[in-house]
Prior knowledge:
Glycosyltransferase, six-stranded mixed β-sheet
Amino acid sequence: MVAVPEPPKRRTVLATGTALGGALLTGGLAAVPAQAAPAPGNAHPATPRPATSVKSSDDSWTTVLSDADLVWQKMPQTWYEGPYLGNGYLGSGIYAEPGKNAVRFNVQHSEVTDHRPEFGSLFGLARLPIGYFTLEPVGTITAVDWRLGLRDAELTGTLTTDRGTLTVRALVHNSLSVLAVEITPSAGEKDFRWVFHPAESISPRAASKPLPDGYAANPPAVTEQHSGVTAAVQPLLAGGQHVTAWQERTRGARRTLYATVAHSHPKTTARDRAVRVVRGAATASYDVHALTHRAWWHRYYRKSFLSVPDARIQRFYWIQLYKVASAARADAPVMATSGPWLEPTPWPNTWWNLNVQLEYWLIHGSNHLELDAVTRALSEFRDNLSNQLAGPYQKDSAGIPRTTDPQLMNGADVPNGGFGVGIPGQDPPTPEVGNLTWALHNVWLSYRHTMDGRILRDTLFPLLRKAVNYYLHFLTPGPDGKLHLPATFSPEYGVNAPDTNYDLMLLRWGCRTLVESAGILKIKDPLTARWQEVLTKLTPYPVDENGFMIGAGVPFAMSHRHYSHLLAVYPLYELTGRTPDELALIEKSLAHWVGFEGALQGYTFTGAASMSALLGKGDDALKYLGELMARFIQPNTMYKESGPVIETPLSAAQSLHDMLCQSWGGVVRVFPAIPAAWQDLALHDFRTQGAFLLSAVREKGATRWVRVTSEAGAPCAVRHGIAGRIDVRDSHGRPLRYEDLGDGTVRIPLRKGESALITAAGDRPDLTIRPVTPNEPAAHWGLPA
């Protein structure tokens, strides 16, 4: 929330030039002027289509999505190699059954957790494994040829054996939450079979950590028959159950497996619900279900468009859009560390000191706020954010533990089992006080990208007020007249320190945001003076000769994957290099952080890429993304860090966003950090802060045109990057007044629903958005031959 200083001289300009005749981008892709389409049937002759209509024969989404499909011509052996399907709730990862002549279709569900809080979030409230189906052919598997079609969110292909072939189609239906797998066998494989294997109902952490005293696995699942539907009923010691139900139907040569999962606690209603869903789904063919499933996904992708000349990265990006919509929905649980695709992991729940924040960043620029579970969950379960604090702070404060279940509960603080927000200097030994404030920054991003006042009024302001209140209980004046924090923990450095930069940076951002929000909401809050005092008197961020320290007296002196000590740079943008000294401090801190090899992990490089993008260093950002791809990203674009985790690839998509568009500080910056090799680029309906939709094209190393559409009528300032004199015109091609702020930035008075097109003076570019040509070929993701 950095204010952008005004240049000393400004001028108001009336854009000139002839009108475009309406040939401006609208909601879909623009097309060149087209002739009227033939009138259907016996209807009257059709009205000619406006020049802004989408040209269906040039479907750019089909092109980029088909190009990005993952392919398998070798059998995937693990979660990190295989296809994955999901809808935010039900998830299936697909790969070879270890040691057997079979293919595993995992069945996992984001709502299935245990309910024994006395054993903490990582045991007693952990996500629970459900089980898997094995597709067992008659013959020995000899070959695989699969394609995960992103556009249809569907796995298709063949499994070849020495007895024939099995033609496969599979999806997890977007709205029905049913796994449907259709198999068309050749004659020699007509007797293939499906087998379900219930998993032991125990926290996945049990495989790597000692069990808490008194903790035991839930009893085994019981298999039942219900008039053609089979149900594996898993009782829970805490009450309730989760149930996997399935049925196979044969239609001609095709056999289709329908399966679902339901969870209930404390009631035992999951069985009836699961059986009912499967029985209903099995009445319709795979083709019927595929129609409605595909329709949702086609609409989903068309909400934005992005194309870069690096084929490998472009494909990776569109796979992340597929992945996040497979793992997230606004009404689904906040993504756990492995999304809905639970595997053996030491991290069987939701992590709030980095993972959640990174998982959801890309939904803003890609225009997919329908996936924002963070805002919904923090609002819905806000009482739990106060109830888990120590008694004296429950009335006026809030915080979130390092790990929680879907209801944001942590449970007991037990050895190796959990973490509760505590009092610095007391238990727990690593007090991460800032986690809620950082999570609320995601909520702030949702507000800023939509300008939806309800988010600000109903969720962000009241919760941030309580999160900052928690800090205020521990702030004390020092002999230097500054306000200081006692020892807290900077994730995940391993050493407590007073005045940690993690907490100072979040506290400063929180107080600034509260003051600004109170002004927007016209609230006369009695704490406003206190927030302003903190902004004035809070101790400066601890720094030394190497840049930002962990905290007072604790230098950054060992390899460390997390950028918790750099949050004021990214993602808070409190420090952006506005002065030579500030720029030097950022550059020194970034170089020192990534200069320690040994403990660096994937998200180290996504953070470094985004910080480089802030500094306008596109080649450095691309270098860091290249390191990520080469060292950490798995064949199916998943990620491994002591177990399956998904936040890093998703945050890499945000790093790409940061290279192509930034909108912090009230200015939309178009193509701010472009590598020299990326001469051509295309963006369409990219969502920015201020609730603007941005479309822009770069050709031969220069920005050709920029269009912004205002959804909320917020102040509009655009750093367009077009050299020389410019024209600014409205959606009808008429000149628009604008204010030149210098440095290639213009302020345009746009009301809600209005658009502005920025071009070089006299230029009349083709406004069609198309995929750009890649600089060189690249292998597909997956396991191609």
